[in-house]
Every structure is written in C-alpha cells, then in structure tokens.
Amino acid sequence: MGITKTTILLGCIAVLSATSAENTGQPAPQRRAPMDIHLKDYLHLGNTTLAMNQALQACQDGDTLHLGGGRIDFHQEHAAERDWYYPFYGNERKYTAISIEHKRNLTIDGDGADLVFHGDVAPFSIENSEGITLRNFSIDYEYPLYAQALISAVGEDWFELTFDQKEFFCKIQGNQFLFYSDADGWTHGVSAPLITEFSPDGVPTQKNPYFACLNEPNKDSFLYKMMCKLEAEQVDERTIRLKGSVGRIPHTVGNYWVCAHASRKNCGIFLWKSADVQLRNIDLFNTTAMGIVGIGVNNLTIDDVNSVVREGSGRMLAVKDDAVHLVNCCGTVEIANCTFTNMIDDAVNVHGVYAVVERKEDTRTLLVRFDYPPKKALAFYSAGDKVLLIDRETLGQTAENTITELTQVGKQHLRLVFANELPESVENTLIEDRSRMPFLHIHDCVTGNNRPRGFLIATPKAVVENCTFFNMSSAIVLTGETKNYYESGPVSDLVIRNNKFHNSAYTGGPVISNKTTIGTYGGTGFHSGITITGNDFRLNGKRFIKLQYCDDVVFRNNTYTRDPSLPYHGEIGNEGSAFTDCNNVVWEAPQTPTGK
Known about the structure:
By secondary structure, the chain is mostly beta strands.
C-alpha cells in the first residue's frame, strides 16, 4: 500500500484504471457499444457468487448488468479476497461476494432482486472505479450476525434471556457467549458483547448501552464506564440467566436484549477511492456492520437507500452500526430520500481524519502516524493535497502547506514531503487534509429508532433540510476530536433548515449539539457559520440546542410545540439553548406555530 514519489493529479479524484492489458496482464477486450448483460446467462456455473463475478468480468464501459429480480443467494465460496481497512476495524482477510474493481460507467440493476448473504461475506465493494451505479435491490442475511433474545424474566439482581433457536442461537461456553449458526457454519465467541434493549415495536429504550462482561472489565479502556460485570448460567437450551450489577441497567420483561457480537469486518457496500458513484433504491434489511462505508470517494449520490427492518421478520435491527460512514471524501455528497432506522449506531457520519505529527525530519519533511482506528496509514492523502497544521490543544490552524511526496513507513506511518518549509516547531501538531472534505447535502430523509444519534457532520460546507428526526440522542452533532477517533473537519458554512425534530433526543439531551475536544480554548470557535432556521421542534420540554466553541451562530424563525405525551427530560439553559465559549450568537426562541 506504500506510495513513493508518485505524481498524482491535484484534487480529490483518484487515479482510475480501466480493465486493460496494462492492469490485468491479458489482452484488452475489443471495445463495443454499451449493452445489457444478464446474470441468468451465467447461472449454469452453479455457484451464484462465481456467476456474478464472471458476469462482471464480461462487462465493459457503459454496460448494465441485470440481476433479474427474485431471491439470489450468495456464499463465501468464490468471493473476492481483500485486506481492506474499514473504519474501526483492523487487518483481517475479508471476502466480498460482488467485487467491482477498475470499472467505468457500469450499472448493476437488481430489477428488484432480494440479495441474501450467508456467513462471513460482505455484499459489495467498489474500488478504483468511476461512474458506477447500483440500484433496485435489497441486502439481507439469512442468519443475521447479531443476536436478539426475549427478556423473559427479571429479578432483583438477575434477568433471563430466551433465544428463539430458529434464527438466533446462543449458549454459554466458559466465560464467553457463543453465538452461532449451524446452517451457515459460523460461530462467534465473545466475552463482552455490546447490548441495547429494544421494545417489541423495534425502538431502542436505553440511553446508555453496555458491554455484558463475563470476564473482568478492562479498566484501561476509554469504554470502561460502559462495562458491566455479569455471571452467566445456561438454564436450558434456549434460556440464559445473567446475574450481577444490573441495577444501573434495568431490563423490562417483554422487551428484547439486542446484542452486537460481530466485528465491523463486513459492511454492506464498501467504496474505496472511486468517483461519481450512485446508490439508488436499495433496502438494507441487514448488514453485519456498517451499511455504507466510503473512503476517498469523489462525488457520491445516495438516493432512496434505506436501513429498515424487513416487514414481518420480527427482527429488531437492520444495519448493525452506522448506516452511512464517509471518510475523507470530496466533491459533492448528496444523501436524499433515505430512511435510516433500527441501527445500533448513527445514521450518517461524515468526517476527515487527523494524523499525528511524530517528528520533523528536515525543514520540509514530517513523519506522521494515524491513531484513527484501525491505526493504519490508509491512503487518505495524495501528492498535491493541501493540508493544514493544527495545534492539538486548541485545534487552531498554525500553518498551511502542500504535499509533494509521500511514502508509507510500516503500517501506521506516512512520511510527508511538503512544498514549503515547515514551522520551526511542530510539537503537539496534527495534520488535516482539507482537500478531501465534501460539500454535504442531506435532504428529505427520515432517521430514528436507533441507539445514538442522527447526522454527525465534520465537513466545512453542509446543508441539512426537509428531514425528520426521532433519534435516541441528538439529531445533529458537530464533531471534531483528538482523543479516541481523531475525526476532523470543522464546519464553516452549515445550514439546518425546514426540518422536523419530533421526539428527537427521546432519552434526553439537546436536539442539536457538538462534541469537540479542545484542551485550551483560544478564544476562537472551532465550528462557525451555523444557521438554523425554519425548523419545527415537537418535544416535551425546551431542549433545542447546546453548543460550545462555535462562532457566528444564527438560530431564528423556528417553531416549538410542547407535546406532553412525549418523554420529559427537563429543559436546557435559556429557553432551551446553551452556548458556551461561543461568539456572535443570534438567538431567537422558537415560537408556537399559529393555531396551536
């Protein structure tokens, strides 16, 4: 994955290679007019995964591959093998059933197909390609790689779980929960899975999830406060009793114990260094980790893509983690007409990545490392990128420069050579690549019934409009931190308008907030240029906005309807607002709509 002294085009578009003699070692196919290719013509090969990838090999520029509708099953056999590094996941061999690599202007049309995956395999990947469209299908797993159990009994310091033994299987083995599917041939032994309680109608009920630890919790972990030491007893084939300090995590009989036991190894659709990608009319009924992950994508459209539970399935969870997670993308990202519900993580997270300066090697060279999970020197940067040097304590800009050369050093480090001389001291400095930050436009979307938040925004320019929110925690969060995830990207032009915040943050807290780690406040806000107007808040209590380290904020012409039927969690500050270490704030309290 190393990049040494390579001249790369300025800007964000990755170098895209069409399938040719140069990159395959085979004679290039004779070019022809675009045509329709049909998966059915390859099903005689027997294995659907093999048939799919053979059909893809036959596709040339401008072709459309039709899947033909109906149910189509995919297994790991004949899947493409890769060593990708997803966000928050490390180096482990991954298998992808439908792998699109070095393609141009290709459309895959499911024709309404129901794509069902089995075991340890990811559905889609798009790598180093341009002009790719995926449309008109759903993604599901025959046996989901999460677990749910009915909370069938509760005592003072114990509760019992009943698994259906049809779709969800679990037994206690030593100090582990052993989740398994004999039919699909996988087992996951986990000593501390992440737990969230859901009501029977599929709504997460706990503000704070927890790790059910059957061994001693790791006190050195920043997640230690979420760890709960429990003892497990196998009551019968279907029933497990858990005993321990459950007072702070009370459970309710009739609700569901939902357990995220699989890693983030296999997302639904993985996009890597590609351009002009369109994802349209896709239902994510189940993915084993995040729904869509995009790294280094230039221009992305996500339209009518939905994280939803299949109707009548009885499942609580659709996408296990974030529905959409985009890292160091650029150009324009449009997310439109989508529904993001029943996740155990956020709806949308768009951000850059801070690199930590380890040392200055000469006047124009830095050795930097990536502490962003999975702590791997991913190819976020390219020669020609304009980057900022950031003070780690204040998150203020100290210098600007342009990368001329870069070389990977080991797994976690990059050596960056710059066009201009660097500051004399780079102690406690971060690198941020502003060339790889998109214009984000999210509109006409619905999100809620998920454990934490709605949209996490860390990109300079963004518009969120005509959306409906009913998330457990804040609907919109402005991020930027250097402690655990190293997610970069202060906003400087953000418009939040004409949205419906109806029962947002239904377990408490502000509807709109930010989470920014600044060690020493320098008097200037991290985020700026924030306009919030024309929105409708329907809550039981005034909890509209809470911001810190934000400048040039305008909050006006919004409406509020108090709904006593919704949960009450007190009120925030001055008429529902709180601004700390913020400058130039224009605040108008929301008014009751006419006729209410």
